[in-house]
Design goal:
Elements: H1 2-19, H2 24-45, H3 49-61, H4 63-69, E1 76-77, E2 83-84, H5 96-103, E3 109-118, E4 121-130, E5 135-144, E6 147-157, E7 163-167, E8 181-185, H6 192-205, H7 218-238, E9 242-245, E10 249-252, H8 254-271
Length: about 270
């Protein structure tokens, strides 16, 4: 029994060490190691290979705890008014100042702070604009009760309606994006400079020149944020991932909850 425990602990230790590498191969190897250790726990410690299979399968169904306990109860307004507002207090979002000082030297000008609030939910946007490359950058802070996270996104809007976005959104996105959105999701925790470089390369890969992009102002950027959110909710109400809850609220439908789970599995395969 002791030797089995030490063997499994050794596999877990090596697997976690692999997860610290930036290379995708080692990170995937770390995930496989954790799954293998889970199987061995059921087989060698539990005494049944079927129990090992159950332990492995449990990892894939783990997101349902979050989906059934928090997401299922989530209610948000269909109409959300994005307005100029002060940034969150430093103790709530201590990284805002540092990120601002890293974004501005890249040729971006801080043009507005905006957001919306509903009960215990808050979305805050600090928006920058680079007039040379007609690109806006946003530091987005999302706070939901005791849960909070932030991400950086870069956006270039073509005159033909296409929207090219590079971001380091930390989770699988929970809704279907409009067909005119072309997203470059970057899972690594890159610096703003590296993310901006990746975005410019993303545009070059799609043969997008500055001349084909819309020029923006602070007011038009605010309007786009508002319109993008409304279009996103409308699209997902139409495709059935969201459903109305009364006249003014929406929530995830059963299809939407399964969509969230599938997104998790896709991310596990692509970015682990």
């Amino acid at each position: 029994m002791i030797s089995n425990l030490l063997f499994i602990a050794g596999i877990l230790f090596l697997s976690m060490a692999c997860r610290t590498f930036k290379g995708r191969f080692f990170r995937k190897l770390g995930i496989l190691g954790i799954l293998f250790a889970s199987y061995l726990t059921g087989w060698l410690i539990g005494g049944h290979w079927e129990l090992g299979v159950i332990f492995v399968a449990a990892w894939f169904f783990l997101p349902w705890i979050e989906i059934l306990t928090r997401i299922r109860k989530l209610r948000l307004p269909i109409e959300r008014s994005v307005e100029r507002q002060p940034p969150p207090p430093r103790q709530a979002f201590p990284h805002l100042g540092r990120l601002t000082t890293e974004v501005e030297p890249l040729g971006f000008e801080h043009v507005l702070d905006a957001g919306w609030m509903f009960e215990n939910h808050r979305h805050f946007f600090r928006v920058f604009y680079n007039s040379q490359h007609r690109c806006d950058a946003s530091i987005t802070f999302i706070e939901q009760e005791q849960f909070a996270f932030f991400y950086l996104s870069l956006c270039s809007r073509c005159r033909d309606g296409r929207v090219f976005i590079s971001w380091n959104y930390p989770f699988s996105y929970g809704l279907r994006l409009p067909s005119n959105f072309v997203v470059n999701r970057i899972p690594e925790q890159l610096s703003p400079e590296s993310l901006y470089t990746a975005h410019l390369q993303f545009l070059a890969n799609h043969s997008i020149q500055s001349e084909t992009l819309q020029d923006q102002t602070a007011e038009s950027l605010l309007t786009h944020i508002q319109q993008d959110m409304q279009d996103l909710v409308a699209l997902n109400l139409k495709n059935g991932l969201l459903q109305r809850d009364g006249d003014s609220l929406f929530r995830y439908s059963r299809n939407g909850m399964f969509f969230l789970w599938i997104q998790f599995l896709r991310d596990l395969a692509r970015f682990s």
